[in-house]
UniProtKB/TrEMBL annotation:
One GO cellular component, as annotated: adherens junction
UniProt keyword annotations, A-Z: Calcium, Cell adhesion, Cell membrane, Cleavage on pair of basic residues, Glycoprotein, Membrane, Metal-binding, Repeat, Signal, Transmembrane, Transmembrane helix
Reported function: Cadherins are calcium-dependent cell adhesion proteins.
One Pfam family here: CADH_Y-type_LIR
Organism (species): Eolophus roseicapilla
Record has Metal-binding as a keyword: yes
Official protein name in the record: CAD10 protein
SUPFAM superfamilies (alphabetical): Cadherin-like
SMART domains xref list: CA (SM00112)
BP GO annotations: adherens junction organization; calcium-dependent cell-cell adhesion via plasma membrane cell adhesion molecules; cell migration; cell morphogenesis; cell-cell adhesion mediated by cadherin; cell-cell junction assembly; homophilic cell adhesion via plasma membrane adhesion molecules; synaptic membrane adhesion
Record's bilayer topology term: Single-pass type I membrane protein
UniProt domain Cadherin: residue ranges: 4-84, 85-193, 194-308, 309-413, 413-527
Localization: Cell membrane
Membrane spanning residue stretches: 527-558
């Protein structure tokens, strides 16, 4: 309550209040000065308030006393319970920990004034989780309460912690939280095989590296504490098998280390050990941390392909052996107990030329074609061995055939030599150095000898004894006009057995040379040419001659083409069944221009017709035929054509007669050809041929004269 000494109780003064919470939390009675709280005050919100009060004249509103300041302090009461910052805590502790091992610390807070009474004094206690864990009352540290807690038995624990103020006394407020505690794993369990003996099977044909099966030891631990390493520590198959640890599954995979053979051994025994890789020294007393098991592996029989006695074969043979000679033998056997017979063959893809062959029964390889080291020094064959009863099971083996050299090639000149000798050469002058090559390859290396096939008066050969030789002149001076070229046979032989030799001929030209021996000209005709006529001039003259010849040939061809005109120019017909043909052709023997078969009389005999463009070599006596009925129109037409051809200077001498071989059926004129009358019966009068002009005199002499001779005889 506020009261001014100036207040006489007549209501002339008025009290006003200002500061923290004035008008809202605190109000003042204007007449009496009593201060009241409008609601419940919470110390945790604000511990004290500063206010200012003043008395003023109600009428004049002037202060009657100076403004006074005062503080309202809130006294605390225990109205807040302890609280934890998290509702649920998560913690872990290794299994097998000793009693009193710290797990986690939890801390609660109280909003009450810790300096006023015990309202904020907190005590911790455990409501759930005993007897496994305990909590320190003052600090809230949770510790293990039992020894050797095993994760494999129980892994998760839930602990409820209570925090109570007022020092834990009756009437104090409290709060709780939950702590989930997990026991972490330690390596306190050794690996264990579920079986003392494990049986596995594998075919004998399994290749190296094949997985046979797996073994696995169980470990109650987890993570790296459960990691196991497998190894083979004993047994009769330690050199035949391997074991590999698979990290993701913690299994031991047994694989084949060497090829298996059912006929050699059918059962193997292995002793496999599994051991932890991470062992905690604190728990050695629980060991040993390893275990063993026995693995028995049975090998199953399989029909295996044949096996060669070697992985590869190398045969050496001389190239001069006879056909059918055996160069070597391959051997194979059936590894199965049945021991089936084996058939051998050659892979022809490795012997495309079929130079070799093989005996199918005993594997002997022999030659079927001649060998030549110079063509191929090595032959790489592939021999196939298969069981006769089961040809699909086959095995291949490489066979290398080396062809050994035999001295069967004669040496020859290394290159083609273009040799010349100067006209002014001196005796003993070097004109050429020659060398030789040989396709053979003797062990001691190549050695050649050079000599002349016969004594030569002009040249000689000098062997340098280093597989080369020199060609020297034997006399002074040579003449191109006398002899322009010399042929010098040189004999080249080797020193291998048997000795091979060949004769190579050197062509030596005689040339004009300068004083230094440089060749200038080797043609004898060059001396006869005029001095002022150069090579360019000769080429120009030759081109001119060729051009003139081409012009003459073209002119002759054009002139000949202009003279070629058809024999029959008129197109008028005398009768409807007479057809005019403009193309004279090459006579009856010309079957290329057109088919004259349709113009001939089908009744005529083809093989007895005579050519009309040449004089017959043998004169046949024509047989007489009955005279054909006279036909004036046809005769006039023929006479008209004869006159036209007689007066035509460009008509050929023999092919001037246009032949009309076929008039049609039942013609009263029959055949118009006098030459074909030889095939008819009866006599024929040829005197009218003399009336046809000088072009038919020869024909008249041949036939007309023959008749007269016959008559006279």
């Amino acid at each position: 309550q506020l009261h001014s000494d100036q207040d006489k109780g007549d209501g002339s003064l008025k009290y006003i209040l200002s500061g923290d919470g004035a008008g809202t939390l605190f109000i003042i009675d204007e007449k009496t000065g009593d201060i009241h709280a409008t609601r419940r005050i919470d110390r945790e919100e604000k511990a004290f308030y500063t206010l200012r009060a003043q008395a003023i004249n109600r009428r004049t509103l002037r202060p009657v006393e100076p403004e006074s300041e005062f503080v309202i302090k809130i006294h605390d009461i225990n109205d807040n319970e302890p609280t934890f910052p998290e509702e649920i805590y998560t913690a872990s502790v290794p299994e097998m920990s000793v009693v009193g091992t710290s797990v986690v610390q939890v801390t609660a807070t109280d909003a009450d004034d810790p300096s006023y009474g015990n309202s904020a004094r907190i005590i911790y206690s455990i409501l759930q989780g005993q007897p496994y864990f305990s909590v320190e009352p003052e600090t809230g540290i949770i510790r293990t309460a039992l020894p050797n807690m095993n994760r494999e038995n129980r892994e998760q624990y839930q602990v409820v912690i209570q925090a109570k103020d007022m020092g834990g006394q009756m009437g104090g407020l409290s709060g709780t939280t939950t702590v989930n505690i997990t026991l972490t794993d330690v390596n306190d369990n050794p690996p264990r095989f579920p079986q003392s003996t494990i049986h596995l099977r594998i075919p004998e044909s399994s290749p190296v590296g094949t997985a046979i099966g797996s073994v696995k030891a169980t470990d109650a631990d987890t993570g790296k504490n459960a990691e196991v390493e497998y190894r083979i520590i004993d047994g009769d198959g330690t050199d035949m098998f391997d074991i590999v640890t698979q990290k993701d599954t913690q299994e031991g995979i047994i694989t084949v280390r060497k090829p298996l053979d059912y006929e050699t051994r059918r059962l193997y025994t292995l002793k496999v050990e599994a051991e932890n890789t991470h062992v905690d020294p604190r728990f050695y007393y629980l060991g040993p941390f390893k275990d063993t098991t026995i693995v028995k592996i049975s090998v199953e029989d399989v029909d295996e392909p044949p096996i060669f006695s070697r992985s590869s074969y190398l045969f050496e043979v001389h190239e001069d052996i006879e056909l059918g000679t055996i160069i070597g033998t391959v051997m194979a056997r059936d590894p199965d107990s049945a021991s089936s017979p084996i058939r051998f063959s050659l892979d022809r893809h490795t012997d495309l030329d079929r130079i070799f062959n093989i005996h199918s029964g005993n594997g002997s390889i022999y030659t079927s074609k001649p060998l030549d080291r110079e063509i191929s020094q090595w032959h790489n064959l592939s021999v196939i061995a298969a069981e006769i009863n089961n040809p699909k099971d086959a095995t291949r083996v490489p066979v290398y055939v080396r062809i050994l050299d035999v001295n069967d090639n004669a040496p020859q000149f290394a290159v083609f030599y273009d040799t010349f000798v100067c006209e002014n050469a001196r005796a003993g002058q070097l004109i050429q150095t020659i060398s030789a090559v040989d396709k053979d390859d003797p062990l001691g290396g190549q050695k050649f000898f050079f000599s002349l096939a016969a004594v030569n008066p002009n040249f000689t050969v000098q062997d340098n004894e280093d597989n080369t030789a020199r060609i020297l002149t034997r006399r002074n001076g040579f003449s191109r006009h006398e002899i322009s070229t010399y042929l010098l046979p040189v004999v080249i032989s080797d020193n291998d057995y048997p000795i091979q030799s060949s004769t190579g001929t050197l062509t030596i030209r005689v040339c004009a040379c300068d004083s230094r021996g440089n060749m200038q000209s080797c043609n004898a005709e060059a001396l006869l040419l005029p001095a002022g006529l150069s090579t360019g001039a000769l080429v120009a003259i030759l081109l001119c001659i060729i051009i003139l010849l081409v012009i003459v040939v073209l002119f002759a061809a054009l002139k000949r083409q202009r003279k070629k005109e058809p024999l029959i120019l008129s197109k008028e017909d005398i009768r409807d069944n007479i057809v005019s043909y403009n193309d004279e052709g090459g006579g009856e023997e010309d079957t290329q221009a057109f088919d004259i078969g349709t113009l001939r009389n089908p009744a005529a005999i083809e093989d007895k017709k005579l050519r009309r463009d040449i004089i017959p070599e043998t004169l046949f006596i024509p047989r007489r035929t009955p005279s054909a009925p006279d036909n004036t129109d046809v005769r006039d037409f023929i006479n008209q054509r004869l006159k036209e051809h007689d007066t035509d200077p460009s008509a050929p001498p023999y092919d001037s007669l246009a032949t009309y071989a076929y008039e049609g059926n039942d013609s009263i004129a029959e055949s118009l050809s006098s030459l074909e009358s030889a095939t008819t019966e009866g006599d024929q009068n040829y005197d009218y041929l003399r009336e046809w002009g000088p072009r038919f005199n020869k024909l008249a002499e041949m036939y007309g004269g023959g008749e007269s001779d016959k008559d006279t005889s």
